[in-house]
């Protein structure tokens, strides 16, 4: 069963009346499982067309919870569990985390288009095309990774600078409050 809305059809420029170039659900399911079996090898000693695979895919997506529903329409639960890991990487979730950490503005939209704009990534094709969106998502993830590494380095440097400043101020305050001339005098003031 398909669940569609007028808004989704409009955004994706999808015309339900045209079947030109469209696959039937059965054909899409067959091609998808064939693709997965071709590129995810069987576990050692297992038949090539079996469901025990050498590894599982860890999805990388923009809003995987939404996309997962479509993937699950093409596979039965056993097939889905054979090919896809439970864990996933979601750029939308990462963007929300970056907002919580004050690394991106709290009012920043986490939609793929807005994230691309925020990170200065040009769109390389028609938005809402599966391949273009997948490549765009990967570009956003790469930029996020670099951004976090750079932000973390800057943060660490700022923390060190702040700590040095506070230590210097604290030492100055101690010197001004307790003028100490020698180690013996220090022990007399504060004990050993």
Spell out the helices and strands N to C: HHEHHEHHHH
Estimate the strand proportion. under 5%
Q: Gyration radius, to the nearest Å?
A: 28 Å
The helical percent reads 55-70%
Number of strands: 2
Mass-distribution shape: elongated
Characterization of the model:
This protein has 192 residues and is mainly alpha-helical. Helices cover 58% and strands 2% of the residues. The protein has eight helices and two strands. The chain has helices at 6-11, 25-39, 64-74, 77-83, 91-100, 112-118, 130-177, 183-190; strands spanning 60-61, 89-90. A two-stranded parallel sheet has the order 1-2. Helix 5 runs parallel beside helix 7 (130-177). It is elongated, with a radius of gyration of 28 Å. It starts with 5 loop residues before the first helix and ends with a helix. The model has no long low-confidence stretch (mean pLDDT 83).
